[in-house]
Amino acid sequence: MQLGPFDLIFLGCVSVSAIYLAVDTAMKQSDSTASLALKLPAFIRTPKWNYLPLILMLCAGGLLFARAMGWIGSGYLTGGLTTNLQPVYDQKFENETVIVDGKNFIRCTLTNVTLHHDGDNFKITSATFYGVRSIETSDARVANVLYLLKGVNLIQNLNIEEMPKAR
């Protein structure tokens, strides 16, 4: 199972709340740790910190509610760009042109492939790439974005091939 960013934030909020409550309880109930608590900086010993678990649990609950309502996760942030894609599971592509438009490649292996992208939605999840990579497109907008990313060194070792639009 792969955890998304909102799952990780939720787990972080719950974990920090639990750890804070455990440490706080231990420090209040034990004489040996009470002296340790006095050595903490003054801003940490203020009563405002007692609200930390409540705030974190409210954030975690808010994340769960927002996800259940479909407001976050599963395409919400991308405006549904990755919904209704044809899943392609555990396929191996080698020395060929792979059309990515309208597909979601999941755990695929791509070796010396050319990705063909004409601007439609697609997603690549947990794929492994080997060898030379190139992208061909007949969409000028896609080509411009690729040239921009290559120009500012966000992508390297990528061949970009512009093709005439099909009529």
For the structure shown, list the relevant keywords.
167 residues; alpha/beta; 4-stranded parallel beta sheet; 4 helices; 37% helix
What portion of residues is helical?
Answer: 25-40%
- For the report, how would you describe the main beta sheet? 4 strands, parallel
Radius of gyration: 25 Å
Q: What's the overall geometry?
A: elongated
Q: Enumerate the strands of the largest sheet in spatial order, edge to edge or round the barrel.
A: 3-6-9-10
What's the mean pLDDT score?
A: 80
Structural class: alpha/beta
CA-to-CA gap between the ends? 43 Å
Percent strand: 15-25%
- The SSE string, one letter per element, is HHHEEEEEEEEEHE
Task: Outline the low-pLDDT stretches.
Answer: 75-79
Counting DSSP H or I runs of 4 or more residues, the number of helices is 4
How many domains, in number, for the residues?
2
Q: How many strands in all?
A: 10
Structure description:
The protein has 167 residues and is an alpha/beta fold. Helix content is 37%, strand content 22%. The protein has helices spanning 5-29, 31-38, 52-68, 140-151; strands spanning 86-89, 92-94, 97-99, 103-106, 109-111, 114-116, 123-125, 128-130, 133-137, 158-162. It has a 4-stranded parallel β-sheet with strand order 3-6-9-10, covered by helices on one side. Strand 9, helix 4 (140-151) and strand 10 form a beta-alpha-beta unit. Helix 1 crosses helix 2 and helix 1 packs antiparallel against helix 3. The chain is elongated and about 75 Å long. The chain starts with a helix and ends in a 5-residue tail after the last strand. Residues 75-79 have low confidence and may be disordered.
